[in-house]
From TrEMBL:
It catalyses: ATP + protein L-histidine = ADP + protein N-phospho-L-histidine. Residues 298-387 form the Histidine kinase/HSP90-like ATPase domain. InterPro entries: DUF7134, HATPase_C_sf, HATPase_dom, Sensor_HK_TwoCompSys, Sig_transdc_His_kin_sub3_dim/P. Residues 155-182 form a coiled coil. This is histidine kinase. PANTHER family: NITRATE/NITRITE SENSOR PROTEIN NARX-RELATED, NITRATE_NITRITE SENSOR PROTEIN NARQ.
Amino acid sequence: MELPKVWRRWLTRHERIADALPAVPLIVIATAATAVGKNDWHDPRWGEAVWMALSCVPLAFRSRWPLGVALLTVVGNLTLLAVAPHIAPTPAASLVALYTLAAHGSRRTAWSVGVAAAVAISGVYAATQAESLVGGASLLRFDFLLAATALGRAVRSRRENLAAARARVERAERMQEEEARRRVSAERVRIARDLHDVVAHHMTLVNAQAGVAHHLLRTNPDQAYEALAHIKENSRAALDELRATVGLLRQPDDAPGARAPIPRLADLDTLVSGFRASGLPVRMTHSGTPTPLAPATELTAYRIVQEALTNSHKHAAGSRTALVLDYGPHTLKVTVTDHGHPGAPKGAGTGHGLIGMRERAIAIGGTVTAGPRPEGGFQVVAELPLSLTPTLSDAL
């Protein structure tokens, strides 16, 4: 460990010693100054040295009571000048006390006490020593006392600026960490939605086609063979989408193509064909004039259709299902309606599918409503914007 650090820590634990430490060089310098004559050295004036030491005693408490110590040293210096001007020491203790007051107290208090002390000490010194107020030692004392106050204020300002800069840096780091956590959380939710959509969709189809194959294996091997072929295709498609989704976790950045392949509305025919092959009769229709869509809108519409048809297959197997894509001036309206039937098996759904659809739509500025119909069945309606802002589109 470095010696300066150890020294600073020791002084921090011993506050009184740290406060009194500046008095040591002051006493030494003042004692040496009393031994300097006009032409040679002589014995120090010990009386002045003793009074200097006594005037420095209050400095041991300067950080605890800066105003009281400053007033005490100034009053003591003035008293000594008035009572014994021939042995009055230099106001070194007042310099340290005024510096401490300026560094720890308010600006108004520091300058008020500093100016008053400078005027009083220099004035009394000039009167007792029969010197001019604006010349010689009197003016020197006045300048030094004001300089001590100015130095203390400069140190105070520097500390405040450093503290403000440190606070800004810490706040920026906290905001950066919070933004990083927010992005990680958003990416985790997005990947979870993709995994849910892929697994729920393909595993539902594979399960349905496996049931068909098992039922027809002995009575109609040709249809069973066709169902097994569909299982193979759906499992391969599921593996491809899972590989693409999980691969996002290994990407070092969002380089072009990092999220490919991305399903689009052009892939809906293949999606619908898979559901039809698994026993869900789906009728897909379009209305309005198809227009180019933002990639995020296409992906969102595809995933909503995928999840809605998966739910229809799970909860209303064999029910007639209608898929309508309505292109409006500014929005794409996607409606998936199944008619249901009393004997439809009910899966123990978690509700994550509906939550995922709403989250996807909200993320691009759209809406999703879903619920049972009064005449039976279930309906999902999504309204998605045709175009997005560049920032939002790229982010998705």
